[in-house]
UniProtKB/TrEMBL annotation:
Organism superkingdom: Eukaryota
Assembly and oligomerization: Component of the translation initiation factor 2B (eIF2B) complex which is a heterodecamer of two sets of five different subunits: alpha, beta, gamma, delta and epsilon. Subunits alpha, beta and delta comprise a regulatory subcomplex and subunits epsilon and gamma comprise a catalytic subcomplex. Within the complex, the hexameric regulatory complex resides at the center, with the two heterodimeric catalytic subcomplexes bound on opposite sides.
Gene3D superfamilies: Hexapeptide repeat proteins, Spore Coat Polysaccharide Biosynthesis Protein SpsA, Chain A
GO CC list: cytosol; eukaryotic translation initiation factor 2B complex
Protein name in the entry: Translation initiation factor eIF2B subunit gamma
Pfam family, one: LbH_EIF2B
Signal peptide residues on this chain, from the entry's feature table: none
CDD domains attached to this UniProt entry: LbH_eIF2B_gamma_C
Length: 499
């Protein structure tokens, strides 16, 4: 089963001030480094293991060229590795070779991921497809996801993936927990299905969790969990394209097909190529319900899950796959999770290099659980533990750096102590500073003897207009509260009548 993969590169409002949300001090979210690698490269490696037939990177017009240029070295390494393997295995074992999956870059003008999918991506989809974020790291092989999707029920249009937070150091207040309603189907052979999602903010405002009566009639054994997180991973069947296609385009396509079939030169084989049903899927008549896609993908699939029970006649369902707790899955979509993703990769490196001991640079001690970028200078009597140092960093004498992420071009003067801090690009920190659990925006100058704990240092942009700040706040609200729209506004009845 061949999939087309679409990787969405968001703005990363929750990773400010290190993403390029204002000014020029940040970088694109997809290019934010995790253990000195672009975070999107981990997603591309995962897609390479999955053997998808095509990988598409979807980003804003202003960022797509920057991402393409930054990934040029990654793609060159893939090509060179393939050439080396081809020379090594040829000619007797060439059948085991597989060319690197082609990577395409799609520039978009859409404001929401749902609108981008409906208006710009559906026309490019030719079969089953998968939607992915650019910020996840996992040790769960993609074949687990694919096998779960292959075993889906015939009436499932897609499979949504959820996970539980397994990292204690991630700030729970930053995570976007929501109330997920799903049916486990324990007494049935059917897979669990997604029924509804309520934001934590809406439940706290209304003081209670409102579940529709018709949902309980259709699924009386439904479960509610407030510990599940949305992974933004969706495996979708091709039939979803027909359902989400706008009415104007759908009517135009049907008229074009009817005109083609009036010609005797068009055979039934060409008609089957147009439909392209999912293999082993008993194709039923798909009811074309209006779906509002001018929102995030999380809300689109929430509405698709509601569609399965809010009508009097049965509709197709959306499956839900809860990742096993034995595996690791983490999204770097908030700052605390971003730091924990770096530490996770550092621990993986330390476990592989445990037999070699801690390397040393000059008279300084750099732990085996740390990564130091190219052309970094570390002075004597400085210790670096469980930290990441970017390129061209200069660390002074008698400094102690523990559990930190330090980006490129940072200068740290003598006798500084940094613990659990993220330091932006080209920042300068004066002598005898102590930063604990703090974030410093790029190009910031920290004066000598500064003591900070739990603070965020950012630049002040006086020239920013009120309209710009309002739009930024609305974008942040959209990013942090995926399910914040009012539930009652969308339902005027209890779903007992056909619409």
């Amino acid at each position: 089963m061949d999939f087309q993969a679409f990787i969405f590169c968001g703005k990363g409002y929750n990773l400010a001030p290190f993403t390029q949300t204002k000014g020029d001090t940040g970088v694109s979210k997809a290019l934010l480094p995790v253990a000195n690698r672009h975070m999107i490269e981990y997603v591309l490696d995962w897609c390479e293991q999955a053997n998808f037939k095509e990988i598409n990177i979807v980003a804003d017009n202003e960022e797509i060229d920057v991402i393409h240029e930054a990934l040029s070295s990654y793609m060159k390494i893939r090509e060179s590795q393939y050439e080396i393997l081809a020379k090594t295995l040829a000619p007797h074992h060439s059948q085991h070779l597989r060319k690197p999956v082609p990577i395409q870059f799609i520039a978009t003008k859409g404001e929401t991921t749902g609108a981008i999918l409906q208006r710009e991506l559906l026309s490019k989809i030719t079969g089953d497809f998968v939607l992915l974020p650019c910020d996840f790291i996992t040790d769960i092989p993609p074949q687990i996801f694919i096998d779960q999707y292959r075993n889906k029920d015939p009436d499932n249009l897609a499979m949504s993936v959820s996970y539980r937070n397994t990292f204690e150091n991630i700030d729970k207040k930053q995570l976007d927990f929501s109330y997920t309603v799903y049916s486990e189907n324990e007494d049935s052979v059917k897979q669990p299905v997604l029924l509804d999602v309520y934001s934590k903010k809406d439940v706290e405002n209304s003081k209670y969790l409102q579940i529709r009566t018709h949902l309980l009639w259709r699924y009386p054994n439904a479960s509610v969990s407030k510990k599940l997180l949305n992974s933004f991973v969706y495996f979708c069947s091709y039939e979803l394209v027909e359902l989400l296609t706008e009415e104007s385009k759908l009517s135009f396509t049907s008229e074009t097909e009817s005109e083609e079939f009036e010609d005797d030169t068009v055979t039934s084989e060409s008609h089957r190529q147009v439909i392209k049903p999912t293999p082993f899927r008993k194709r039923n008549k798909l009811v074309k319900d209006p779906i509002n896609c001018c929102k995030s993908l999380a809300k689109v699939f929430r509405d698709l899950g509601r569609r399965s029970w809010q009508h009097s006649a049965p509709r197709e369902t959306i499956g839900v796959f809860i990742l096993p707790s034995l595996g690791c899955f983490i999204r770097s979509n908030v700052l605390s999770a971003y730091m924990e993703a770096n530490r996770y990769m550092l621990r993986m490196k330390a476990s592989m290099l445990a037999a070699q001991g801690a390397p040393a640079i000059g008279n300084s001690a750099v732990g085996a659980d740390s990564v130091v970028g190219a052309e970094c200078s570390i002075s004597e009597k400085t210790s670096v533990k469980l930290s990441v140092l970017g390129k061209n960093c200069k660390i002074g004498k008698r400094c102690r750096i523990v559990g930190c992420v330090i980006l490129d071009g940072v200068e740290i003067d003598d006798e500084c102590i940094l613990e659990n801090a993220v330091i932006g690009n080209f920042t300068k920190i004066g002598k005898k500073c102590k930063l604990t659990n703090s974030y410093v925006e790029g190009s910031y100058i920290v004066n000598s003897r500064t003591v900070l704990k739990g603070e965020t240092l950012t630049h002040i942009f006086i020239e920013e207009s009120e309209d710009t700040s309002d739009s930024l706040e609305s974008s942040e609200e959209e990013d942090t509260s995926e399910y914040s729209d009012d539930y009652d506004d969308e339902f005027e009845d209890d779903g007992l009548f056909e619409r």
